[in-house]
Amino acid sequence: MEEMANRISVKYALLILITASFIVNLGFSALSPVFPYLVLALKGVLKELPELTVGAIQAHQGALEFGLLMAAFMATRAPIAVFSGFLSDLFGRKRAMILGMLLYLVATLGFLLAQDVWTLIIFRAVQGAGSAMVWPVAEAYLADVTRRWQRGKALSAYVASMLIAELLGPGIGVGVYKAWVIFFGGADYVTALKSPIIFLAFMTLGSLSTLIFLPKISRPSNSNDFRTGFKEVKSALRSLPKSVSRSLKTMYFNGAVNGFGMGILQTALIVYIIELVVKDPTYIGIFYTVSSAAALPASLLSGYITDKLKRRKPTIILGYLVGRGVFFFVPLVRNPILLLALAIPASMVFGISMPAMRALQADITPQEVRGTVFGLQQFFMNGGVFAGSILGGWLTQILATQTYQIAAQQIQGIALPFWIAGTLGMLTTTLFILYVKEPR
User: For helices 313-326 and 281-309, what crossing angle results, to 10°?
Assistant: First the structure.
């Protein structure tokens, strides 16, 4: 009876956490197709609804602001991720996640009230703090309530919930924006571009309400004293076997480098699509939807396959190789259909490898420091994204108008950020193969 009750409790906890994740990610993914245009509008680059603009939208003029928005998010997320993971090890995962979701709500209301880009940047930083209190802690919670060879399936289901939200959200966001224009007109184009934020506010409230019902789990440490708890966590980290310590350090370094590449890439991709492929927000919504649709079945299969084979590392390597390799080809494609086709394999391998990576990290980490280790991973990755976002915004703004002659080919400068990200990805793939050891 006790074992059955425990299984029910675990399933209930997973259901609550996955539902909360789905709801809030639905809101944020609904905002994603329109948010870059809101930035351009508040900066003064966009003077009317984007789909009515004659000629190309000079999106590169907002590249620095795109980078600063991502950098602000990471500037708070990176350090707080470590702190929140440590606090959740001491005082409980549920409290940390609820506090983080409250910060999400504050950030959403700030977006609604913003009348300039700098206000958006400030509340983007608040959003980063909230994110640091939720996602690394949620992953540690999932690892705590599952056994080792259940963990891949649980994390796959968790990632799948986010991907389903990202599959549905962009279409909903574009639909909300288009409906607002139909019913209220497009004269106040800034308010029209803010309309998906209203949907986000309701979704954040729904996620916060759901987390209240999340069961608390017992902590391995019996001490509530902060200093004693810190010493326990520090001692546990120092006592890790050499192979585990080396694997974690490699993951941390890779996280920082991959985050740096991601920061460069995200700004470049938005500018590339808006300026050189399609200027209507509908296409960005379709792009995100197709990417999520490709990643979803791969994510669901990932946990089942890695748990069944009892191997995670080969799956992660596949994701590294294909996902990073695609970066080299993206800036050579201008056709919107071909660009979507290129996004599919990249998204599929991302969906396969991400749950496997999270599960591998949980496999090699003791429960009493798992929140801290997950938080440190987020710290290094987010720190890389912070630096990459600033550099990426600056590079994209400068290079977008440049053309270079390479052999007999003329290559536009916007390609260079993509190639830098791809090269960094190849480096981290090599390090992962050589230095990360999977436990048997």
Answer: 160
Quickly list DSSP for 280-320.
SHHHHHHHHHHHHHHHHHHHHHHHHHHHHHT--HHHHHHHH
Residue 254's identity, in one-letter code, is N
Segments making up each domain of the chain, as ranges: 2-213+239-435
pTM (predicted TM-score): 0.74
Largest distance between two CA atoms of the chain: 73
User: From CA 421, how far away is CA 108, in angstroms rounded?
Assistant: 30
Q: Give the count of beta carbons closer than 10 Å to the beta carbon of residue 37.
A: 29
pLDDT digits 0-9 by tens, 92-107 = 788 888 888 899 899 9
* Residue of 375 and 62 predicted with greater confidence: 62
Q: Which residue type sits at 15? A: L
Cβ neighbours for 52, distance < 8 A, ≥ 6 positions apart: 186
197: how many CB neighbours lie within 10 A of its CB?
23
In tens, the pLDDT along 132-163 reads 888 778 877 877 777 766 766 777 777 778 87
- The residue among 122, 123, 126 whose CA lies nearest residue 100 is 126
Pick the CATH number of 2-213+239-435 from 1.20.1250.20, 1.10.1740.10, 3.40.50.1860, 3.40.50.1000: 1.20.1250.20
Alpha helix ranges (H) inside 114-213: 117-145, 148-184, 189-211
Residues 179 and 62: their CA atoms lie apart, in Å, by 26
More confident residue, 403 or 236: 403
How many angstroms separate the CA atoms of 7 and 62, rounded?
Answer: 51
Nearest-angstrom CA–CA distance, 366 and 372: 10
Residue 219 is predicted with a pLDDT of 54
